[in-house]
Amino acid sequence: MNGSGTRTVTGRRLAALVRERCADPGLARDVEVVSQVLPFKVSGHVIDHLVDWKSAPDDPLYRLLFPHRDMIDPAHFRAVERALGDPVALRGAVAAVRDALNPHPGEQLTRNIPRHDDGDQVEGVQHKYAQTALVFPRHGQTCHAYCSYCFRWAQFVGDPGLRIADDGPRRVTDYLRRHPEVSDVLFTGGDPLVMRTELLQPYVEALLRPGLEHITTVRIGTKALSFHPARLVTDPDAGPLLRLLERLARAGRHVAVMVHVSHPRELEPDLTRLAVSALRSTGAELRSQAPVVRHVNDDPAVWADSWRAQIALGIHPYYLFMERDTGARRYFGLPIQRAYEIHRSATTRLSGLGRTARGPVMSTTEGKVTVDGPTRLPGGEWAFALRFLQARDADLVGRPFHARWDPQAQWWSELAPFADHDRPFLAGAAPGVPVRQGGPR
Ligand SMILES: *Cc1c(COP(=O)(O)O)cnc(C)c1O
Ligand code: SF4
Hints:
The chain folds into two domains: about 5-100, no CATH class; about 105-320, TIM Barrel, CATH 3.20.20. It is built from 15 helices and 13 strands. The protein has helices at about 10-20, 25-35, 45-50, 60-65, 75-85, 85-100, 155, 170-175, 195-205, 225, 240-250, 270-280, 300-315, 330, 335-345; strands spanning about 10, 40-45, 125-130, 130-135, 185, 215-220, 255-260, 285-290, 315-320, 360-365, 365-375, 380-390, 400-405. An eleven-stranded mixed β-sheet has the order 3-4-5-6-7-8-9-10-11-12-13. The chain is globular, with a radius of gyration of 22 Å. The termini are far apart. This is KamA family radical SAM protein. Its cofactor is pyridoxal 5'-phosphate. InterPro entries: Aldolase_TIM, Lys_aminomutase/Glu_NH3_mut, rSAM, rSAM_sf. Keywords: 4Fe-4S, Iron, Iron-sulfur, Metal-binding, Pyridoxal phosphate, S-adenosyl-L-methionine.
């Protein structure tokens, strides 16, 4: 059900697909139960070209895309399983489980939403860091397939109160015209490339109008290369999209396609390679980002392979994220220490061109924090050295600070300031978390 006519499988048909393709019948049951709670959707490309069915459920692409019983608490799993077949009980059980999964990390719905001069909120725009405004076009709030770790899962499960969507291109450009500090507009979602080109075009072309010369960079966040590469090659709508990007580049704007690559196998299909060339031929630059998550890519060799393949294709590694504190985090989450080791070990295997992904990065309410690593401070105690790459309070950016070293901590909220002078940096994190002694080795 999207503009570019992808064959997709969701809901009940997902369990049927797994029953048909996988030897273990228990997997289809898991799918049936867990997909009541979290949103799942797979595309034809994913089914035919990415998932290695023989290795399910341990195949990393299966883990990326399909429900697994360990994604929710065992008691929650049983509660939902018991309620199957009783719509009223099921609705209650599902709502309770979703609530327990922190559906809105970083207070996305209530903060960073800018206002027009008339005081109305600019719907579908997030403007948190001075230079970059995020735009969520109304018809781009879904994806060709869903990553099971997605931190935006709550907006895909169909509760309209949870959606972020915009007022249309006019209101967005009115806002941008009054904000000369914005140099970058990032179209995001969901995935803006689920939109038909004719719907996306007005947003993009509006940026070329007089009064918006300060918008020098247009970024588009997408996972279409991995989930539906035909969008950029063989779909009827591919040509118009590529010509749109080309017009933008010819007009002197930097076009940055921010691709999401979780695993190097996503880059192997011929159609994906053709899609990369097609994008590059428009004059666009490709940059990549993804979270490091357990069961999918928690291995430095996987990241080194991925970044190596990206460099060969002309994609610049940009960010390696920590998984946010939401959704199936019990399943995907990794300690900060482990994510740091994976990033470090992967980058040391590559030349400088492959070392450009900053990370691991936590995107928190206060800002984007990167983990420079564990370090031993005078006095012999271990700490994490941290740095804001972006911050709500711009004065905090780029200044090293320290949190108490904790080998189990998985998120910002579990970190405690190392010393008093670190407090302003960790004001948004949890005070008084227990201190663990010892060091990383
Ligand atoms: C990550 C992010 C950006 C972009 O940051 P860059 O460092 O420019 O890539 C912009 N706005 C928000 C809210 C973000 O989370
Ligand atoms: S492509 Fe991005 S927005 Fe879409 S499901 Fe994956 S992580 Fe979420």
